[in-house]
Specification:
Blueprint lengths: L1 E5 L5 E5 L1 H7 L5 H11 L3 H10 L4 H17 L10 H20 L9 H11 L4 E4 L5 H7 L17
Parallel strand pairs: 2-3
Antiparallel strand pairs: 1-2
Helix pairs in contact: 2-5, 4-5, 6-7
Length: 161
């Protein structure tokens, strides 16, 4: 998913989702990540939640588990005050997802071809501001691939336009 818009000042802005990374490196696809997560051993109840909702949207399932844990605590369903099973499953899924992403992420930026970097750069260079919700380093590596650097983050003092 990627979403772009032009603001009232005419600046073109882009929000990058997982589709940007998947186009460059297929291992970041939600289905591929879910298969890795399952192989890493997520709790059976978490797998049932994924099956019920028929999706591999990790953020949605993590939010569902987090909200469910809060509801269980609010209603006193965790009577002994210990960490609920839901919280443990939430942490297990979060850890498995982190490990799966680590496994599929290219070890270093040299493993991505110049052709792919150039295609990524050609796409993002159409925008004034870029935001990402991705787990990977592809956008950052793409920005490093050109010298001088064509992009800066919002944290530096150098505000290139």
């Amino acid at each position: 998913m990627s979403k772009s818009f032009t603001d009232s000042a005419g600046k073109k802005r882009l929000l990058l989702g997982n589709g940007f990374s998947m186009a460059c490196f297929g291992g970041f696809g939600y289905t591929a990540l879910y298969e890795r997560v399952k192989n890493l051993g997520i709790p059976e109840k978490v797998q049932k939640i994924f099956e019920k909702y028929g999706e591999t949207n990790f953020e949605a399932i993590l939010k569902l588990l987090d909200d469910s844990s809060w509801v269980a605590e609010t209603y006193g369903l965790c009577s002994d005050g210990s960490q609920s099973e839901i919280k443990k499953d939430y942490e297990a899924l979060k850890l498995a997802l982190t490990n799966a992403i680590t496994e599929v992420h290219p070890e270093h930026r040299g493993l991505i071809t110049d052709e792919k970097y150039n295609a990524c750069y050609a796409f993002i260079s159409n925008f004034d501001d870029i935001y990402t919700v991705n787990y990977d380093l592809l956008l950052y590596w793409t920005s490093l691939h050109r010298e001088p650097f064509a992009f800066t983050d919002s944290f530096s003092k150098d505000k290139r336009s």
